[in-house]
Structures are given as C-alpha cells and as structure tokens.
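User:
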Amino acid sequence: MTANEINALVDRLREQRNLSDAEFKTILETDAYDAALQKAADEVRRAHYGTDVYVRGLIEFTNYCKNNCYYCGIRRDNRNATRYRLTKEEILSCCAEGYDLGFRTFVLQGGEDPFYTDDLICEIVAAIHAQHPDCAITLSIGEKSRESYQKYFDAGANRYLLRHETADPEHYGKLHPNELSALHRQACLFDLKDIGYQVGSGFMVGSPYQTTENLISDLRFLQKLQPDMIGIGPYITHAQTPFANEKSGSLELTLRLLSILRLLFPYALLPSTTALGTIHPQGRELGLRAGGNVVMPNLSPVRVRKLYELYENKICTGEEAAQCRGCLEQRVKSAGYEIVTARGDVKR
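Assistant: Predicted structure:
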C-alpha cells in the first residue's frame, strides 16, 4: 500500500470519526499506519487541548476485593496478597498533600470492598468536597447499584471510572467468573452517565484470548457510550492469577489504539497510563505523543503502594508524592507537553 493510501484512510478516520469493521481490522493488524495515526492524533489533541496535560492524584485506598477476576493481582483468592485499607483521615491527608502539590482532581480507586459502605463512601466524598470545593472527585470502585451511584453523586463525586474491560460477552466470560457479566457492567456505565457523572470507560489491550474482532467491538461500544474519559493500557500478567503464564499486551498495539481513540473521540480525556510506563521506560511519554493528555501520579502513602498490585512490576511504588509529581513533570516536558494545574474537565 502506498503512502497516499495510508494517509487517505487516516484522514477519513479523522474527518468522519469512523471506519468500517474491515478497515479497522486492516489498521489494527499492521504497523504500516502507525506514523500517520500518531501524527494525526497529536494534531487533533493539540487542536482541542493544546499542549496541556492534566494530572489526577490517584489514591488507592483499599486492595481488598470481593471479586475473583482471572487477570487481577488483588483478586479474592490471592492468598499471598497483603491486604490494607486506608482510613478517612489517611485519605484526607493524601488529598491535602496533593492539593499543595497542585492537584485539582482526586481519584479514589480500590477493589470492590464491602467494608466501605455507601454511607462511608459518602462521608469520605463529602469531607473531601468540604476541604477542597474547587477540586473534582473521581471514584473508581466498581459495579454498584444505581441508587449507590446516585448517593455518591449527591455527596459530591463528579466523575466515575469503570473500564468495561471487553465489550464482547463471550470474551468477558473467559476473563471473569460466572457471577460477573459484560452486560451488567455496561449497564452500570449507562446508569452513571444518566445520573450526570463525567464517565470513564476503557479496556485492556492484549488480554488473554483477545482477537482483533474483540477490539473492534470495544471501539463500537465506546461509540455507543460516548464516554468523557477512556483509559486503556496493556494487559500485564501477575504470577498469583490463573493467567500467570499468559503473555502481556504490547506497547505498539496500545499506542496504535490510543491514536485511533483520539481520532474517534477528539474531545476525550485519554490517560497515558502507569501500565504503559511499566512495559517500556518511556511508555508514558510515548502515550502522550500518541494522543494522550492525562497522567495519574500516585498520592497513596508509600507504605501501601507496592500492595496495590493489579499487575507485577508496577512503577513509582517507592516515591513520595512530591517526587512522583516532579519526575512526571520532567517526563511530560521532554515529550513536548506541559502539566497544568486545573481540574481538567472534558471539552466537548
């Protein structure tokens, strides 16, 4: 295929924000389009967000989880995991430190831990909101009832992250035990959107049994959902899971999909994830150049960071929050962008 043919297809994706399944398959299964995709994606992100990169202060507040997903290091049946929970006071302390460092969004992420009742989550959210009324509060705590989501929203939560993981029900069934279903997870996302959250979804790249067709169904699902944020990252194995011997996802395919997502959703907030930085020393910088515009440094206390191990060899587990922030600032600058102190709301 010629350079003209490559550019013509990428231009059409950029202009129409869509391709046929066959065309998506062509683009996904070769590196021939990568340079053109990345160039177009960077132009589109600069048109919408300039060189701004938003920081989210990540607080991983519990690694207990009632679920048993086959790919996850904090799954219920991992008897080797050292479990922890942060108190409300510890979470507020993380936020206060983060605020002083310039963070205006806090992301509370954890396993699905029944210890944190709706009342306790609402109490924590309301306390953060009272202390930092100019900040956005994001929750990433899994599948809940619509009533629970409404309570968190009423308490002051603005955003919710819930990766759909894979949109294909059959593939979903290969990654999760029977009590979890793709359709229920997707229904949660539409509930969140209906309530009024800024909603984030996303999927793993290179998860076991994943096909190109699965990835296309992920793109189609996101087109239907039209989320504000889309988090993707390479699947990375963990020794204490049933998938211990499966191979991890690739940097190249993750970057390719990031660029495709930027062209499909020009307005979207796209994180350049820690998982990218884990599989390649410059992974996060490459993610920004491929269309990403969000980074999520860790505000969790250093003593618990190594314990929130969804996958192995996670980076930035030994740094204090200020070190983490400073290191990221330099990395973002080296990629040609700039960290800004702002809530970083979606620009539709």
